[in-house]
Amino acid sequence: MEQHELIIQFRPDGVYLSPDKWITLEQAGFEKIPGKESPDASWRVRIIKNIEEEERIFCEIIEYKKGQIPFGAWQLRFFEALGGVTSVSFRSVDTRSRLQTLPGIRDYSPGQSTEEVVYIARPIVYEYQRESVKQHFSVPFKKVQFENGQVSFDYRIERLNQPIRITVPNSVIREEFDAVKNYFGKALGFKKINGTIQIEMEGPQVISSIGFSSEIEMITADTVESVQFSLTKDILKKATKEDGAHTIVDADELFNSVANLPVSSEAFFENEGNLLEKLIQLSDSKHYRHLRYLSSRQLFDKQRLRFVLRPFSFLFLLQGKSKLHVIWETLNTSEATYMWRVGEEPLELPIRLKQIDGLILQMKLTGKTSYLQSNDDGFVRIKHDYTDADGGLAKWMAELEYQLGE
Predict the structure, then answer these.
(1) Per-residue pLDDT tens for 360-404?
(2) Distance from the CA of 365 to the CA of which of 2, 39, 162, 260 falls in 20 to 30 A?
(3) Measured between alpha carbons, how far is 229 from 52 in angstroms, rounded to an integer?
């Protein structure tokens, strides 16, 4: 506490050390002069030493002012620290400055030493009535933080002359949405949220606070679905144009590295199959039913769905009769389905997956002709017949099932 500054207020009813702690004029070493009025005054003091064993602070007066100077933020925050102080002493009191600020009082105990005069403080306890305070607010949407079941933001309350944390409830909102909240603002068409704050107070203490905003109420499950749609469009747009270091990625890498979205795919999509469904719905894919079928057979417990870029395509892992099978199917290009048999041994699967990743990368760099002429054991290609009414789906499924049964 040493070297901190405090305000001491002189009012008609006493000398205040804080909003709820005061001493009488006599306890401060002064008394009223009969027939003379003394206006409000404030002394700014510096705490030289906190003598805890005596519950006393020793101060130096650094400024004498007429009128009331508000208690500073530090003084308001340290009510509890002040609560343990029962006496105050000053190094000295300048008589001229005291008379200029307090002309209606005189010394009450002139016999005490001017080096250090001790005044006994009398703490009092107020019984505050609880009251409700309302205040309107307007906050930029970018400063609002999404949390589970609510949003929150800091807002300055006029009555307190300081900011407090305000929450506005909405059960639809999740904290994962915060990283892409700009999508919500675009979906609903606002840059600010407005509303009212309801605060319950007892004296200077905030008991509870809550905010209400029509803009936050507008965020519904339909809004989340609209944001999901916008995210999917951006992912599809960026993934089909990607031609950088990324070749084969999982769902989170598709979000973070390719689409530059700082959020997990699970924040908006129940699973990778749900993400795939949204992607093929938006793309008008000629392999729509093929991809849906492969997704329904994907072994998500063994391998995450992976995405191949340029052409945008998918790597599935399916269970066959005696082997696992890695299947490469494109989203919207007229290319055959590539299929590799893979052993089920725990150590063989990751090795074989890495080999297949290398093959796909090589084909993307140099073309497929060389690989197709290599007669790779365990590899087959299933062609699409787009002349059939069903886009060759029946023939394709028959051939796929035959290969899975081998």
Answers:
(1) 888 888 888 888 888 888 899 999 888 877 778 889 999 999 999
(2) 260
(3) 64
